Amino acid sequence: MNTRILALERRTEVRWWITGSVPVLAVLLSLLVGAGFLRLTGHDPLTVYRVMVQASFASTFGFADTLVSATPLILTGLAALVSFRVKLWNIGAEGQLYFGAVFASGIALLVGAQLPRALNIGLMLLAGALGGMAFIAVPAIARAWLRTNEIITTLLLNSVALLFINWLIFGSRSFWRDPDAGQFPQGLRIPAAAEFPRLGTTRVHLGLIVALLAVLVVAAVLSRTRFGFRMRILGDSEEAARYAGVPVRTTVVAVLLFSGALAGLAGAVDVGGFSRRLDPNSLAIGMGYAGIIVAALARLNPPGVVLVAILLGGVRNAGTALQSLPERVPMEIAIMLEGAILLFALGSEVLVRYRIRWPWQTPPALEHR
User: CA-based, 20 to 30 A from 264: which of 46, 165, 326, 337?
Assistant: First the structure.
């Protein structure tokens, strides 16, 4: 007698419609969970979701704000994508973003008033990338030579980075702090010549173009370079990579540095295009962690990162709009939806690689007898 309730059986072939349906399924299930929560708290889910869509996508102003929110998400999503492709789990994009912001704002404050805007922007982007690389360098070397778990090291360093920028602005008289701020410390505003120009009359800034160019660069590196070929081999099997002559340690470090550079770019873009200063309150908004959701929903596909980042940017942008409803829906519903999307996206991955075999189905060992 078969007493099994159900079993998971590895698929011999993964069809395209299964792969494509996973992100959609994750979003739909997260919306369903969100609707249940809203109903339990006395809110109408359809009204709330309608307001969120109208606030983020149904107007020029709202969609522009969505693109502003999506810009750093594209870069942190790419940072997660690059490392995850090689089965290296960089969970520290948040801290790398912070250090990218520190480096970018520092170079802007140092030389921004003396240089033309184009050169300032180039230096800020370079400094941001170097800041992200510097902050992930120790976990990368530890992973390559000491086999240290990069999940732990990169995750713990996020708190270090946040405490460091808080100290720079709130706990010291640093170069980054505005000396005229008085009792309410804040970062020193970067020179006007270092600010990213806006696109048209909206709040969308040059950072969006930078993010889209980064998508093209990542896609080209992964598909058309020797480094991308090494990444594919290493992602499939470390032993196969060694057998094929791939320098595993060097490639591991290079991949993590590449990932950190992309996250650092997000920090530079935030400083130059949005906050215009090193602002811990603006940076500490979970963009690095949300990048993991973006990469997971995009199924590690660079073009898909753009679409998912816009979706999550809209969810984030809609949070404040919920306060306009008469029943005062908590804006934390947007954060809850993000978390639900991540959980369902990761859980749905099981259905891509495995199928459910019910107790009444013929066991695979007996199918061909």
Answer: 337
